[in-house]
Structure formats: C-alpha cells, structure tokens
Task: structure prediction
Amino acid sequence: MAVIKTEDFIQSVADALQFISYYHPQDFVQAMHSAYLKEESKAAKDAMGQILINSKMSAYGKRPICQDTGMVCAFVKVGMEAKLDKTDRTVTELVNEGVRRAYLNSENPLRASMVSPPNGARKNTKDNTPAIVHIDLVKGDKIDVELAAKGGGSEFKSKFKVLNPSDSVVDWVLEMLPTMGAGWCPPGIIGIGIGGTAEKAMVLAKESLGGKIDMHEILERGPKTPLEELRVELYHKINALGIGAQGLGGLTTVLDVKINEYPTHAACKPVALIPNCAATRHVHFSLDGSGVAVLPYPKLEDWPEIAAQDQSNIRRVNLDTITQAEIESFKPGETLLLNGKLLTGRDAAHKRIVDMVKKGESLPVDLKGKFIYYVGPVDPVGDEVVGPAGPTTATRMDKFTDFMLNEVGIAGMVGKAERGEATVDAIKKRKAVYLMAVGGAAYLISKSIRQAKVVGFEDLGMEAIYEFEVEDMPVTVAVDSQGTSVHKTGPSEWKVKIENMNKTPEKV
Result:
C-alpha cells in the first residue's frame, strides 16, 4: 500500500497550477504552429502568430499566458490501495489548499476570479478557491490528478442538448459552433461528451479536453474506429465553417475534436460541447508516495520562432489627440498601433458607471472622448507596471454600450470577440469604433503598457478602472464607424473560399 503525504499532494497541485499558467502543452504549441504555417488569412495568421509569440514569452518569463488564469477543475482518481498519511482534511480540501498556495504565490501571482455566492453579493474569494473537483475510486495504489485552469471566455460557451436517438451529433455541433461567437478564442479544441445523463455528458466533455492532440496522427494513418471517424468528420466540417482564429475568418477554427462516450437511456442521446481556448491549460501527474509530482518540463527551444509582424506600414494612433475624422477613417480589418492613454473597465465598472450617471453622481475619471479597454489584469511583479493584460469578451459589455456611447460619451472600445447586432447599430449611429486585441496574448500585450495606475473604483480589484499608457499596442478594427463587423464579413468570406478550395481538382 502506497502512503502519500498530504503535503506532497498539496504542493503538487500548487506546482502544477503554476506550471500550466505559463507553459502551454507541447502538443498544443505544435498543432498551433502547423495551423499557423498553412493559414492563408492574413488577419488569422497574425492572430496565431501573436498567440505563439505570447506562448514563448510566457514560458521564458514564467508569467501567465492569459490574464484570466481560470477556474480550477480537478479530476482526482484515488487508487483503492493508496493511503494519505493524514485524514484530517478531505481530498477536495487538499486540492483547495493547493489552489490557494498557487494563486497567492508572490513570484507569479495568479488572478483570482472565483466569487461567492454566485448570485447576489458575488464577493471575490481572493484566492481562487473553491476548485471544481471530481473524485473517483479506481484500482491501484496511486493517486492520479488531471488539473485544468478553465477561463470564463471558453468555459461558458458550453452547449448541451438531449437529442432524439436518431438525431445527428454532427448536425447539432455545426449548428452550435456559429452561435458560440469568438469569445472562446479559437483556434482551440472542442470537447464533446455523448451519453449518460445531463451532468454525465458535461463531465465527459470536460474530461476529454485533457487528452493529447492527436488529430494529425489520425489524419495521416486514417481513422480506425467509428469514434475516430466522427472526430475527423467534425474536424473537417467545423473548420469548413471559416470562423478562423479569433473569429476573423480563416482555415483553422479547431486544432482537434475530442469525444468521450458513455451508455445512455434508449429514449435519448445527451450531447455536451465544451471548448478549450487558445490558452489551453492542463497537466496530468501521479503520486505514488515517492514525493511531489514530477512535471513534464518542456525545453524552451521546442517553441517555434515566429517573426514579429512588420509594423513599418501599420497606422499609429495617438489616443490623446485622436479626432472624430480619424476614427471615421479606420477601415474594417485594418491593424492599428495604439499609443497614449487607454482607460479600462469591465462588467462591474460598467454597471457602477451607469448607476452613478443615472443618479447624477460624478465619475472618478472623465470618460468623454476616451477609449475603454475591456480587461482585468494580473497583478504586477518585480519591475512590471502591470501583469498580463489581455482582453476580455466584449459581448458581455453590449448591454451597457449604447449608454456608454450616448450618455457617457466614450469614443471607442477595445476587447475581444464579436459585438451583438444592436451594439453594432449603436456604434454606427454614434460613429464610434470597436477594436479587437488578440485573446490568448496577454503577456505580449502587457509589454505594450508603459504605465498603469488605478483611477477609479479601487475596491473592485482587477475590475477597477485603470489608466494605461500604451505604446504600439496592436489591435484590429473589428467594427468600423459605418457598422461593418469583421466577425461577420470574415467568416462569411472564408466559408465560401474554403468551399471553392474543396472543389478544386487538387482537393478531390
């Protein structure tokens, strides 16, 4: 019987969470690089290039890949012949202690995102606990742990439906993908669970995302099982949608499709879909009583060399002197380099701003004519002015945008993913603009921020209003002043292009 020290368990969890905060799995890096090399859409290729550069920078700097360092999900398989040396705490409590230790690490503090209760006060727990823990008793004398840090932008694009037994899983998935928008930061991995009950299907989908990316291997040798055939069919058909990296349109929307199955009732076919984003973070380790887990540390030379984008012909924009005429000259899909003062604000800040303006109260900072960046940065360490500071999903701010444009008077917004139809109409009516930064490039983006200070709502923590001084921060014009959205035009154009490519003799 293996005796495993509780301290080894806790420290292994803490070490693993630090590890996945800055190391992408190597199979993901290789798959992303392969997609980058074959991508023909300039906008999508540039986005994937930023993701790969960010990945390498995070590995070297040991700082988070993404500002959203995720909710911790743990699959713990306890061997029935394994024993913990102390039994004063449950396995879930030990996982939570490891989470607490990892997220409060002073050398690489991770952003705490968990709030409790989920409805009402929603107070941040400050240490990212509690984790979501799944425990299973299995044969053997080891404890196996699969840890993932799941960002909100991808986790809450999950879908579920109980299909009729004769319904097509492929048809349902292809129906769901376009409705997910770009907030899940493609290209990534789609996890699917088929069978069981409602909750079982969701767990199956989540657990599938811990598997190795092996689609390239299956494509080379050909599928050998019905499940592999289904994976390949979905892989090709999802990519044929043309959604592309960051939803800008392109050849690659998914790097792999993973599927787990379980028997189910004869009257139904439960199906769950959960995406993993471009900040894919997971690792597996085993404890056998010999000490803390040994993690699969990568070699830094394993990251590909990606040439930085040539910025010589890219328009530089001074946010401190920007004019309405300049805003109206921005073209859909154009790359800009932002300079000057950029204010930040997310969900909580927007709600407070709206409430204060409606009450006639003065705001802590003048927002008229300013640009708002939707971000909740990681705390800085050492000589950093700010920690990783990538964009959050702009769609969540849609409910506030008309008010922010017309009553508060902001000139533009920076975030990730698409905007809703009503918001696009409001942007067009106000002759404003929405700019997109690359989700999954948080550490790279933070290097464009030269100064940072809190100028309002300090009590909101990472959701406070910051004033960033940015230098050559790269963004894409996602909705221009005429209401043209690249998240609509890009995928539509590339879906047609892909259809035409597949009709050519070379592809037959």
Remarks:
- The chain is about 35% helix and 25% strand.
- Residues 1-24+65-151+301-308 form one domain.
- The chain has a mean pLDDT of 95.
- Residues 42-61 form the longest helix (20 residues).
